[in-house]
Amino acid sequence: MIAPFNDKASYFVLGRKNLLKKVQNELIKNAPIIWFHCASLGEFEQGRPIMELLKDRYPNHKILLSFFSPSGYEVSKNYAHADYIYYLPLDTENNAKEWLDIINPKAVFFIKYEFWHHYATEIHQRNIPLFSVSCIFRENQIFFKSYGDFNRDILNKFTHFFVQDKESQLLLEGIDIKNTTISGDTRFDRVNTIRQQTKEKYDIVEAFKNNKRVFVIGSSWPEDMDVLSAFINQNEQDIKFIIAPHEVYEMAIKNIEKQIEKKCIRFSDATVSNAEQFNVLIIDNMGMLSSLYQYGEYAYVGGAFGKGLHNILEAATFGLPVFFGNKNFTKYKEARDLIQLGGAYSISDYHDLIQKFTHLNFDIASTTAESYVQGNTGATKKILDHCEKYISQ
Q1: Is 288 helix (H, G, I), strand (E, B) or coil?
Q2: Domain shared by 126 and 84, yes or no
Q3: For the residues of 10-63, what is the DSSP string, one character each?
Q4: For the whole model, what pTM was predicted?
Q5: Of all residues in the chain, what percent carry a pLDDT higher than 90?
Q6: Torsion of CA 258, 263, 267, 271, to 10 degrees
Q7: DSSP 3
């Protein structure tokens, strides 16, 4: 009903129109398919290292990647390591049966929080291996409530869980689910690869930096900018700022520009010859952020003043001390870990940010952030090594 008035809803609807028929026409018959499903972009980043290692090991297997959210599909629809990329049909009994009749996968990987009743049931009934990857569980989730029988039944349809931490494993064991491995989070492998293989250089950003210290603000929301705009406007140190907002539509960019008193320019308007003269560079496109952290000394990652913290590991892998809001970050293990280790800082307001930034020991925080990422890599290989007996058959 709202699709005619909302772009995201429109993508959600149009992307599924005649989808099953399209999939049936496009799939190569009799080719072995491994199905990966991600809710959105964040989960895609977790599934991506597994897809790429799997493609290296099994080049003749076809990877089918599905998304629930337009924000994941629209950004990733040209991903080179997947042979087929689609929206996931809604979770109904008929859709699940028809979808699996068409794609007939050898194995299925659901990333992090993806637990779909009809799909999991149908996969289980067909004896197709179903893996939950980089999942993390908390005691307050419905699976562990007295009234969570329906949701617990979904978990029983999975072949194996590759959990991020010991707490998740113990919670699953508490409801008699023991087919688990503590593998860690595949995002560590992903961000480590980004750092090692960062070939994407931006002449405009290098000209803007001009050997100055840069504070990268990634995935910011209006709630974040309410705190950060004062920090930017009143900062008297020789620091430049790159702002990559979570939403890049025109009104969102204009609102940021209204808040900034220092000389700022949009990336789309910047050139190599004029970028140096500005103090603030606003990124008005999608897809650059993970590569932008290479130009920074400090980072702020948005979301924690709202629905939830975005990916801080993309900044940490480059050795950037990371700041973020203090309202919604505790369910993110990496945020808790880095705060405890001294590589990240949650802040309550502008004054808290000033105090923590002023007293920051940059060398220690930078080394800590980088070492934390390096010390937690390896989940991808552990997962795929375990799953090979299912995939190679």
Answers
A1: coil
A2: yes
A3: HHHHHTTTTHHHHHHHHSPTT--EEEEEESSHHHHHHHHHHHHHHHHH-TTSEE
A4: 0.85
A5: 87
A6: 150
A7: G
Residue 211 CB neighbours (<10 A): 6
Are 32 and 178 contained in the same domain? yes
Q: DSSP for 74-89?
A: HHHTT-TT-SEEEEPP
In sequence order, the 6+-apart residues with CB closer than 8 A to the CB of 115 are: 132, 151, 154, 155
Burial of 330 (0-12, 13-18, 19+ CB in 10 A): middle
Cβ 351 vs Cβ 329: under 8 Å: no
The DSSP result for 239-282, as a single string, is EEEEEEES--SHHHHHHHHHH--S-EEEGGG--TTTGGG-SEEE
43-94: pLDDT as tens digits: 999 999 999 999 999 999 999 999 998 878 888 999 999 999 999 999 999 9
Q: Residue 33 in contact with residue 104, Cβ under 8 Å?
A: yes
Distance CA 13, CA 264 (A): 37
Domain containing 98: what range?
3-184+378-391
Sign of CA dihedral 140, 141, 144, 147: positive
Residue 236 and residue 174 share a domain: no
What the block records as the tokens of 276 is: 């140096």
